[in-house]
Amino acid sequence: MADLQDELHSTAEVGELDLDHPEPMSGVFEPPPVEAGPGADPLARARTLLTDHPVADGYSGLPWALRRLSWYDLELGESAVDTDVPRLREGHVGALFWSLHLPGALVGERAVGATLEQLDLVKTVVAAHPEGLRMAHSAAQVTDARNCGRVAVLLGPAGAAALDDSLGILRALHALGLRVLTLSGASWAGENGLTRFGEEVVREMNRLGVLADLSGASDATVRRALTISKSPVMCTRSAARALRPHPANLPDDVLVELGATQGLCLVPLTAEQTGPTVRDVADHLDHVRELAGPGCVGLSGTYDSGAAHPQDLSDASGYPRLVAELLGRGWSETDLALLTWGNVQRVLRTADFTSRAARRRREPSMARIAELDG
Protein backbone atom coordinates (compact mmCIF):
# COMPACT_ATOMS: atom_id res chain seq x y z
CA MET A 1 0.00 0.00 0.00
CA ALA A 2 3.07 2.20 -0.12
CA ASP A 3 2.14 4.37 -3.10
CA LEU A 4 -1.18 5.41 -1.56
CA GLN A 5 0.01 5.71 2.03
CA ASP A 6 0.17 9.50 2.07
CA GLU A 7 -3.30 9.75 0.55
CA LEU A 8 -4.73 7.24 3.01
CA HIS A 9 -3.30 9.14 5.95
CA SER A 10 -5.39 12.13 4.93
CA THR A 11 -8.55 10.18 5.77
CA ALA A 12 -9.75 9.46 9.29
CA GLU A 13 -7.29 7.47 11.36
CA VAL A 14 -8.32 4.12 12.79
CA GLY A 15 -8.96 5.39 16.27
CA GLU A 16 -11.10 8.30 15.07
CA LEU A 17 -13.84 6.29 13.43
CA ASP A 18 -17.26 6.06 15.05
CA LEU A 19 -15.92 6.75 18.52
CA ASP A 20 -17.81 9.99 19.09
CA HIS A 21 -20.83 8.25 20.64
CA PRO A 22 -23.32 8.32 17.74
CA GLU A 23 -27.01 8.01 18.42
CA PRO A 24 -28.03 4.53 19.59
CA MET A 25 -29.86 2.24 17.20
CA SER A 26 -33.54 3.13 16.96
CA GLY A 27 -36.26 0.54 16.76
CA VAL A 28 -34.44 -1.95 18.99
CA PHE A 29 -36.81 -3.75 21.33
CA GLU A 30 -34.88 -3.56 24.61
CA PRO A 31 -34.87 -1.45 27.78
CA PRO A 32 -33.10 1.93 27.68
CA PRO A 33 -29.34 1.66 28.18
CA VAL A 34 -28.17 1.55 31.79
CA GLU A 35 -25.59 4.04 32.96
CA ALA A 36 -22.70 1.70 33.74
CA GLY A 37 -19.44 3.05 35.10
CA PRO A 38 -16.17 1.19 35.62
CA GLY A 39 -17.44 -0.39 38.85
CA ALA A 40 -20.65 -1.73 37.33
CA ASP A 41 -21.40 -5.29 36.35
CA PRO A 42 -19.31 -6.16 33.23
CA LEU A 43 -22.34 -7.50 31.36
CA ALA A 44 -24.25 -4.25 31.97
CA ARG A 45 -21.20 -2.26 30.84
CA ALA A 46 -20.92 -4.47 27.75
CA ARG A 47 -24.53 -3.84 26.75
CA THR A 48 -24.13 -0.11 27.28
CA LEU A 49 -21.02 0.00 25.10
CA LEU A 50 -22.64 -2.11 22.38
CA THR A 51 -25.60 0.25 22.25
CA ASP A 52 -23.24 2.93 20.93
CA HIS A 53 -20.79 0.64 19.11
CA PRO A 54 -22.62 -2.47 17.85
CA VAL A 55 -20.97 -5.51 16.33
CA ALA A 56 -20.05 -5.60 12.65
CA ASP A 57 -19.98 -9.39 12.22
CA GLY A 58 -17.58 -10.50 9.49
CA TYR A 59 -19.12 -13.80 8.40
CA SER A 60 -22.56 -15.43 8.35
CA GLY A 61 -23.45 -18.67 6.58
CA LEU A 62 -27.15 -17.82 6.68
CA PRO A 63 -27.82 -17.74 2.90
CA TRP A 64 -26.94 -21.40 2.35
CA ALA A 65 -28.67 -22.42 5.61
CA LEU A 66 -31.91 -20.79 4.46
CA ARG A 67 -31.87 -22.71 1.17
CA ARG A 68 -32.89 -25.90 2.95
CA LEU A 69 -35.90 -24.29 4.68
CA SER A 70 -39.27 -24.19 2.93
CA TRP A 71 -40.49 -21.35 5.14
CA TYR A 72 -38.92 -18.97 7.66
CA ASP A 73 -39.52 -15.64 9.35
CA LEU A 74 -36.35 -13.95 10.54
CA GLU A 75 -38.18 -10.99 12.07
CA LEU A 76 -40.35 -13.07 14.41
CA GLY A 77 -37.55 -15.55 15.11
CA GLU A 78 -36.39 -18.75 13.46
CA SER A 79 -35.26 -21.70 15.59
CA ALA A 80 -33.96 -23.67 12.59
CA VAL A 81 -30.97 -21.30 12.18
CA ASP A 82 -28.51 -19.54 14.50
CA THR A 83 -29.40 -16.05 13.27
CA ASP A 84 -32.60 -14.04 13.25
CA VAL A 85 -33.52 -10.42 13.89
CA PRO A 86 -34.46 -10.82 17.60
CA ARG A 87 -31.14 -12.52 18.35
CA LEU A 88 -29.21 -9.98 16.28
CA ARG A 89 -30.82 -7.23 18.35
CA GLU A 90 -30.16 -9.05 21.61
CA GLY A 91 -26.53 -9.43 20.54
CA HIS A 92 -26.32 -5.78 19.43
CA VAL A 93 -25.28 -6.70 15.88
CA GLY A 94 -25.42 -3.67 13.61
CA ALA A 95 -23.90 -5.12 10.43
CA LEU A 96 -23.40 -8.59 9.01
CA PHE A 97 -21.45 -9.95 6.05
CA TRP A 98 -23.53 -12.72 4.42
CA SER A 99 -21.32 -15.37 2.87
CA LEU A 100 -21.84 -16.50 -0.73
CA HIS A 101 -19.49 -19.44 -0.28
CA LEU A 102 -20.57 -22.72 -1.84
CA PRO A 103 -20.31 -26.20 -0.31
CA GLY A 104 -18.46 -28.86 -2.24
CA ALA A 105 -16.21 -28.26 -5.19
CA LEU A 106 -18.35 -26.41 -7.71
CA VAL A 107 -16.30 -24.87 -10.51
CA GLY A 108 -16.84 -23.09 -13.82
CA GLU A 109 -20.35 -22.18 -14.89
CA ARG A 110 -21.88 -24.16 -12.03
CA ALA A 111 -19.99 -22.07 -9.47
CA VAL A 112 -21.00 -18.83 -11.21
CA GLY A 113 -24.64 -19.88 -11.37
CA ALA A 114 -24.79 -21.04 -7.75
CA THR A 115 -23.19 -17.79 -6.57
CA LEU A 116 -25.74 -15.73 -8.49
CA GLU A 117 -28.53 -17.79 -6.93
CA GLN A 118 -27.08 -17.12 -3.47
CA LEU A 119 -26.84 -13.43 -4.21
CA ASP A 120 -30.44 -13.34 -5.40
CA LEU A 121 -31.55 -15.20 -2.28
CA VAL A 122 -29.86 -12.66 0.01
CA LYS A 123 -31.57 -9.75 -1.73
CA THR A 124 -34.92 -11.55 -1.61
CA VAL A 125 -34.56 -12.32 2.11
CA VAL A 126 -33.58 -8.75 2.97
CA ALA A 127 -36.48 -7.34 0.94
CA ALA A 128 -38.87 -9.68 2.79
CA HIS A 129 -37.68 -8.44 6.22
CA PRO A 130 -37.63 -4.63 5.85
CA GLU A 131 -38.23 -3.91 9.53
CA GLY A 132 -35.07 -5.72 10.57
CA LEU A 133 -32.64 -5.86 7.64
CA ARG A 134 -31.31 -3.46 5.02
CA MET A 135 -28.84 -3.98 2.16
CA ALA A 136 -25.67 -1.90 2.33
CA HIS A 137 -22.75 -1.50 -0.08
CA SER A 138 -20.61 1.13 1.67
CA ALA A 139 -19.59 2.34 5.11
CA ALA A 140 -22.03 5.24 4.83
CA GLN A 141 -24.93 2.90 4.01
CA VAL A 142 -23.95 0.65 6.93
CA THR A 143 -24.16 3.63 9.27
CA ASP A 144 -27.47 4.77 7.77
CA ALA A 145 -28.99 1.31 8.26
CA ARG A 146 -27.81 1.18 11.86
CA ASN A 147 -29.19 4.66 12.62
CA CYS A 148 -32.57 3.53 11.25
CA GLY A 149 -32.62 0.55 13.60
CA ARG A 150 -31.87 -2.00 10.86
CA VAL A 151 -29.09 -4.55 10.61
CA ALA A 152 -26.94 -3.73 7.58
CA VAL A 153 -26.39 -6.73 5.28
CA LEU A 154 -23.25 -6.75 3.12
CA LEU A 155 -22.68 -9.25 0.31
CA GLY A 156 -19.64 -11.49 0.65
CA PRO A 157 -17.33 -13.15 0.86
CA ALA A 158 -17.81 -15.15 -2.31
CA GLY A 159 -15.40 -17.86 -3.40
CA ALA A 160 -12.80 -17.31 -6.09
CA ALA A 161 -14.39 -20.10 -8.12
CA ALA A 162 -17.36 -17.78 -8.68
CA LEU A 163 -15.26 -15.76 -11.15
CA ASP A 164 -14.65 -18.68 -13.52
CA ASP A 165 -11.27 -17.02 -14.23
CA SER A 166 -13.00 -13.95 -15.69
CA LEU A 167 -12.44 -10.35 -14.64
CA GLY A 168 -15.66 -9.46 -16.46
CA ILE A 169 -17.58 -11.71 -14.06
CA LEU A 170 -15.79 -10.03 -11.15
CA ARG A 171 -17.05 -6.65 -12.37
CA ALA A 172 -20.58 -8.03 -12.85
CA LEU A 173 -20.65 -9.44 -9.31
CA HIS A 174 -19.40 -6.13 -7.96
CA ALA A 175 -22.16 -4.32 -9.85
CA LEU A 176 -24.65 -6.64 -8.11
CA GLY A 177 -23.23 -5.68 -4.71
CA LEU A 178 -20.35 -8.06 -3.95
CA ARG A 179 -17.96 -6.54 -1.40
CA VAL A 180 -15.58 -9.40 -0.46
CA LEU A 181 -13.90 -12.20 -2.44
CA THR A 182 -11.95 -15.10 -0.89
CA LEU A 183 -8.62 -15.76 -2.62
CA SER A 184 -8.57 -19.54 -2.47
CA GLY A 185 -9.94 -22.43 -4.48
CA ALA A 186 -8.74 -21.16 -7.87
CA SER A 187 -5.80 -22.11 -10.08
CA TRP A 188 -4.44 -18.56 -9.82
CA ALA A 189 -4.39 -18.55 -5.98
CA GLY A 190 -2.85 -21.83 -4.86
CA GLU A 191 -0.14 -23.25 -2.64
CA ASN A 192 2.55 -21.43 -4.61
CA GLY A 193 0.86 -18.08 -4.21
CA LEU A 194 -0.76 -15.77 -6.74
CA THR A 195 0.01 -16.28 -10.40
CA ARG A 196 0.33 -13.29 -12.76
CA PHE A 197 -3.40 -13.53 -13.44
CA GLY A 198 -4.07 -13.77 -9.70
CA GLU A 199 -2.16 -10.54 -9.14
CA GLU A 200 -4.27 -8.91 -11.87
CA VAL A 201 -7.41 -10.11 -10.05
CA VAL A 202 -6.23 -8.35 -6.88
CA ARG A 203 -5.47 -5.14 -8.79
CA GLU A 204 -8.92 -5.17 -10.36
CA MET A 205 -10.49 -5.81 -6.96
CA ASN A 206 -8.65 -2.75 -5.64
CA ARG A 207 -9.99 -0.71 -8.58
CA LEU A 208 -13.54 -1.85 -7.92
CA GLY A 209 -13.46 -1.67 -4.12
CA VAL A 210 -13.89 -5.42 -3.55
CA LEU A 211 -12.02 -6.51 -0.43
CA ALA A 212 -9.69 -9.52 -0.53
CA ASP A 213 -10.45 -12.24 2.05
CA LEU A 214 -7.34 -14.31 2.82
CA SER A 215 -8.83 -16.81 5.27
CA GLY A 216 -8.11 -20.33 4.04
CA ALA A 217 -5.61 -19.12 1.45
CA SER A 218 -2.10 -20.58 1.38
CA ASP A 219 0.61 -18.76 3.30
CA ALA A 220 2.25 -17.86 -0.01
CA THR A 221 -0.99 -16.33 -1.31
CA VAL A 222 -1.49 -14.41 1.92
CA ARG A 223 1.98 -12.92 1.83
CA ARG A 224 1.82 -11.99 -1.85
CA ALA A 225 -1.62 -10.40 -1.49
CA LEU A 226 -0.40 -8.35 1.48
CA THR A 227 2.47 -7.11 -0.68
CA ILE A 228 0.57 -6.08 -3.80
CA SER A 229 -2.84 -4.97 -2.52
CA LYS A 230 -3.27 -1.21 -2.30
CA SER A 231 -6.41 -1.68 -0.23
CA PRO A 232 -6.55 -3.34 3.21
CA VAL A 233 -7.14 -7.08 3.17
CA MET A 234 -9.45 -9.02 5.46
CA CYS A 235 -9.21 -12.44 7.01
CA THR A 236 -12.88 -13.15 7.63
CA ARG A 237 -12.37 -16.34 9.69
CA SER A 238 -8.85 -16.45 11.15
CA ALA A 239 -7.56 -16.68 14.71
CA ALA A 240 -4.04 -17.12 16.10
CA ARG A 241 -2.16 -20.22 14.94
CA ALA A 242 0.20 -19.93 17.91
CA LEU A 243 -2.73 -20.67 20.23
CA ARG A 244 -4.54 -23.21 18.06
CA PRO A 245 -2.86 -24.82 15.02
CA HIS A 246 -5.80 -24.65 12.63
CA PRO A 247 -4.82 -24.18 8.93
CA ALA A 248 -7.08 -21.11 8.57
CA ASN A 249 -5.48 -19.43 11.58
CA LEU A 250 -2.60 -17.02 11.05
CA PRO A 251 1.02 -17.37 12.22
CA ASP A 252 2.47 -14.57 14.31
CA ASP A 253 4.63 -13.08 11.55
CA VAL A 254 1.60 -12.74 9.27
CA LEU A 255 -0.39 -11.09 12.07
CA VAL A 256 2.42 -8.56 12.48
CA GLU A 257 2.47 -7.89 8.72
CA LEU A 258 -1.32 -7.64 8.66
CA GLY A 259 -1.10 -4.92 11.27
CA ALA A 260 1.67 -3.12 9.38
CA THR A 261 -0.52 -2.98 6.25
CA GLN A 262 -3.65 -1.98 8.21
CA GLY A 263 -5.52 -5.16 7.30
CA LEU A 264 -8.15 -6.79 9.48
CA CYS A 265 -8.21 -10.17 11.24
CA LEU A 266 -11.77 -11.21 12.13
CA VAL A 267 -11.56 -13.85 14.85
CA PRO A 268 -14.19 -16.60 14.42
CA LEU A 269 -16.38 -17.76 17.28
CA THR A 270 -15.90 -21.45 16.53
CA ALA A 271 -14.75 -24.17 18.89
CA GLU A 272 -12.49 -25.68 16.23
CA GLN A 273 -10.50 -22.52 15.56
CA THR A 274 -10.57 -20.70 18.89
CA GLY A 275 -11.64 -23.20 21.55
CA PRO A 276 -14.70 -24.31 23.54
CA THR A 277 -15.11 -21.34 25.91
CA VAL A 278 -15.54 -17.57 25.87
CA ARG A 279 -12.16 -17.29 27.58
CA ASP A 280 -10.53 -19.16 24.68
CA VAL A 281 -11.97 -16.69 22.17
CA ALA A 282 -10.79 -13.80 24.34
CA ASP A 283 -7.28 -15.32 24.43
CA HIS A 284 -7.15 -15.18 20.62
CA LEU A 285 -8.44 -11.62 20.59
CA ASP A 286 -5.76 -10.63 23.11
CA HIS A 287 -3.08 -12.29 20.98
CA VAL A 288 -4.18 -10.71 17.70
CA ARG A 289 -4.51 -7.28 19.31
CA GLU A 290 -1.02 -7.55 20.79
CA LEU A 291 0.62 -8.45 17.47
CA ALA A 292 -1.50 -6.66 14.84
CA GLY A 293 -2.71 -3.78 16.99
CA PRO A 294 -6.14 -2.74 18.27
CA GLY A 295 -6.99 -1.23 14.87
CA CYS A 296 -6.67 -4.56 13.06
CA VAL A 297 -8.85 -7.02 14.99
CA GLY A 298 -12.56 -7.75 14.65
CA LEU A 299 -15.24 -10.38 15.19
CA SER A 300 -16.63 -13.12 12.98
CA GLY A 301 -19.56 -15.06 14.38
CA THR A 302 -19.37 -17.70 11.63
CA TYR A 303 -22.91 -18.67 12.59
CA ASP A 304 -24.99 -20.95 10.34
CA SER A 305 -21.80 -22.29 8.77
CA GLY A 306 -22.09 -25.77 10.28
CA ALA A 307 -19.36 -25.07 12.85
CA ALA A 308 -19.67 -25.78 16.57
CA HIS A 309 -19.46 -22.69 18.77
CA PRO A 310 -18.01 -22.00 22.21
CA GLN A 311 -20.16 -22.28 25.29
CA ASP A 312 -22.33 -19.16 25.84
CA LEU A 313 -21.67 -18.06 22.23
CA SER A 314 -24.01 -20.52 20.52
CA ASP A 315 -25.85 -17.91 18.43
CA ALA A 316 -25.79 -14.25 17.43
CA SER A 317 -27.17 -13.09 20.79
CA GLY A 318 -23.99 -13.90 22.72
CA TYR A 319 -21.77 -10.92 21.91
CA PRO A 320 -22.40 -9.04 25.21
CA ARG A 321 -20.93 -11.99 27.12
CA LEU A 322 -17.77 -11.87 25.02
CA VAL A 323 -17.42 -8.09 25.43
CA ALA A 324 -17.97 -8.50 29.20
CA GLU A 325 -15.07 -10.98 29.29
CA LEU A 326 -12.83 -8.48 27.49
CA LEU A 327 -13.86 -5.67 29.85
CA GLY A 328 -12.87 -7.93 32.73
CA ARG A 329 -9.45 -8.31 31.12
CA GLY A 330 -8.93 -4.57 31.04
CA TRP A 331 -9.75 -3.75 27.41
CA SER A 332 -10.46 -0.04 27.09
CA GLU A 333 -13.77 1.14 25.70
CA THR A 334 -11.87 2.74 22.80
CA ASP A 335 -10.27 -0.60 21.82
CA LEU A 336 -13.60 -2.40 22.21
CA ALA A 337 -15.35 0.17 20.01
CA LEU A 338 -12.72 -0.50 17.33
CA LEU A 339 -13.12 -4.25 17.74
CA THR A 340 -16.89 -4.29 17.40
CA TRP A 341 -17.55 -1.52 14.87
CA GLY A 342 -14.80 0.95 14.03
CA ASN A 343 -12.29 -1.38 12.36
CA VAL A 344 -14.76 -2.80 9.83
CA GLN A 345 -15.98 0.72 9.04
CA ARG A 346 -12.39 1.88 8.54
CA VAL A 347 -11.62 -0.95 6.11
CA LEU A 348 -14.80 -0.32 4.11
CA ARG A 349 -14.05 3.40 3.87
CA THR A 350 -10.44 2.84 2.91
CA ALA A 351 -11.42 0.36 0.19
CA ASP A 352 -13.81 2.94 -1.27
CA PHE A 353 -11.15 5.65 -1.14
CA THR A 354 -8.57 3.38 -2.79
CA SER A 355 -11.07 2.45 -5.48
CA ARG A 356 -11.79 6.08 -6.37
CA ALA A 357 -8.08 6.82 -6.60
CA ALA A 358 -7.38 3.72 -8.73
CA ARG A 359 -10.21 4.42 -11.19
CA ARG A 360 -8.70 7.79 -12.01
CA ARG A 361 -5.54 6.18 -13.34
CA ARG A 362 -6.51 2.61 -14.34
CA GLU A 363 -9.00 1.38 -16.92
CA PRO A 364 -10.89 -1.90 -16.39
CA SER A 365 -8.54 -4.81 -16.97
CA MET A 366 -9.23 -6.97 -20.02
CA ALA A 367 -6.56 -9.55 -19.07
CA ARG A 368 -7.29 -13.22 -19.64
CA ILE A 369 -5.83 -16.11 -17.72
CA ALA A 370 -4.59 -17.79 -20.88
CA GLU A 371 -2.58 -14.69 -21.77
CA LEU A 372 -0.87 -14.33 -18.38
CA ASP A 373 -0.63 -17.89 -17.07
CA GLY A 374 -0.81 -19.94 -20.26
Structure description:
- This protein has helices at residues 5-9, 42-52, 62-67, 85-90, 108-128, 139-147, 167-175, 196-208, 219-228, 252-260, 278-292, 319-328, 333-361, 369-373; strands at residues 55-60, 93-98, 133-135, 151-155, 158-159, 180-182, 189-190, 193-194, 211-213, 234-235, 264-268, 297-300.
- With 374 residues, the chain is of the alpha/beta class.
- The chain has one domain (45-373): Alpha-Beta Barrel (TIM Barrel).
- The strands form 4 sheets. Strands 1-2-4-3 form a 4-stranded parallel β-sheet, with helices on both faces. The protein has a 3-stranded parallel β-sheet with strand order 5-6-9, with helices on one face. Strands 10-11-12 form a 3-stranded parallel β-sheet.
- The protein is globular, with a radius of gyration of 19 Å.
Give a brief rundown of this model.
This protein is of the alpha/beta class and 374 residues long. It has one domain: Metal-dependent hydrolases (TIM Barrel, Alpha-Beta Barrel).
What keyword list fits this structure?
single chain; 374 residues; TIM Barrel; four-stranded parallel sheet; three-stranded parallel sheet; 14 helices; 12 strands; disordered N terminus
The second-level CATH architecture is: Alpha-Beta Barrel
CATH class: Alpha Beta
The end-to-end span amounts to 28 Å
The main sheet orders its strands as 1-2-4-3
Tally of helical runs = 14
Q: Tell me the CATH topology.
A: TIM Barrel
Strand content: 5-15%
User: What about the largest sheet?
Assistant: 4 strands, parallel
Number of domains: 1
| Backbone structural class | alpha/beta
- Going by CATH, what is the homologous superfamily? Metal-dependent hydrolases
Poorly predicted ranges: 1-36
What percent of the residues sit in helical stretches (DSSP H or I)? 40-55%
* Assembly of the depicted chains: single chain
Q: Evaluate the radius of gyration.
A: 19 Å
Number of strands: 12
Average pLDDT metric: 90
